[in-house]
Design a protein that fits this description.
Helix content: 55-70%
Structural class: mainly alpha
Bound molecules: fe (ii) ion
Largest sheet: none
Radius of gyration: 17 Å
Low-confidence stretches: none
Number of helices: 10
Mean pLDDT: 93
CATH topology: Hypothetical protein af1432
CATH class: Mainly Alpha
Length: 218
């Protein structure tokens, strides 16, 4: 019941209610509906990316980024996947070199689409950086120079990718396993942000346990 996807959906309703009628949010909602119609797995993945990005941002209290906008950025970060054929987007097979090239292109395609639609620079940055890694092993640029938004995008994206089932992977990791993974690859992901994510997940899990206790007592 107190699943991360349910919490992400509830944050979605709360924020879209709050920003009802605002142009960027209305455009974001329309694009997110398109993602959901095309591929529910990508839509769920994006919801959780937004949810995690929102909570990391709240907990680091950065002047340079706004938590609500990081949620919107998470919802839209994989919009470029709409350009991929179903044979790749929903594939459970290992992709060949040509197909992998198309997957890599989803970042630039998404970034360019969001730019054409006049989304703000923070949302463009989030989209462009979500597959970059601090050791330069990511894509599309292979840069080692990731700013705060880039680090939030990378960690939120990998959390959601490991947490939810995808067409190419049925096993999902627990929060504890994901945190261990992130510490193991701390040359790729910002270590301070992993600590922040860990503390948020611990708090969330103890809140959920007390909600379950309340239900049992009732
Ligand atoms: Fe992506
Ligand atoms: Fe993603």
């Amino acid at each position: 019941m107190y699943d991360v996807l349910l919490d992400s959906q509830s944050l979605f309703l709360q924020l879209f209610n709050m920003y009802n009628g605002e142009q960027e949010w209305e455009k974001g909602k329309a694009l997110f509906v398109s993602i959901s119609c095309r591929d529910l797995a990508t839509a769920n993945h994006s919801l959780v990316v937004g949810y995690i990005a929102y909570h990391i941002t709240i907990n680091i209290r950065l002047a340079s980024c706004n938590a609500e906008r990081m949620f919107l950025a998470g919802l839209l970060h994989d919009i470029g996947k709409l350009s991929m054929p179903d044979s790749i987007l929903k594939s459970s097979q290992r992709l060949n070199t040509e197909e992998r090239k198309l997957v890599i292109e989803h970042v630039k395609v998404g970034h360019d689409a969001l730019k054409q639609l006049d989304f703000g620079p923070d949302i463009l940055q989030f989209c462009y950086s979500h597959h970059e890694r601090l050791d330069g092993s990511g894509y599309p640029q292979g840069t080692t120079n990731l700013n705060e938004i880039g680090c939030i995008a990378a960690i939120s994206d990998i959390y959601s990718a490991l947490k939810l089932p995808r067409s190419y992977r049925s096993n999902c990791l627990s929060d504890k396993e994901i945190i261990e993974f992130l510490f193991q690859y701390d040359n790729q992901f910002n270590r301070n942000y992993t600590y922040i994510l860990k503390s948020f997940l611990n708090k969330r899990s103890s809140n959920n346990l007390s909600k379950i206790d309340e239900l049992i007592i009732k």
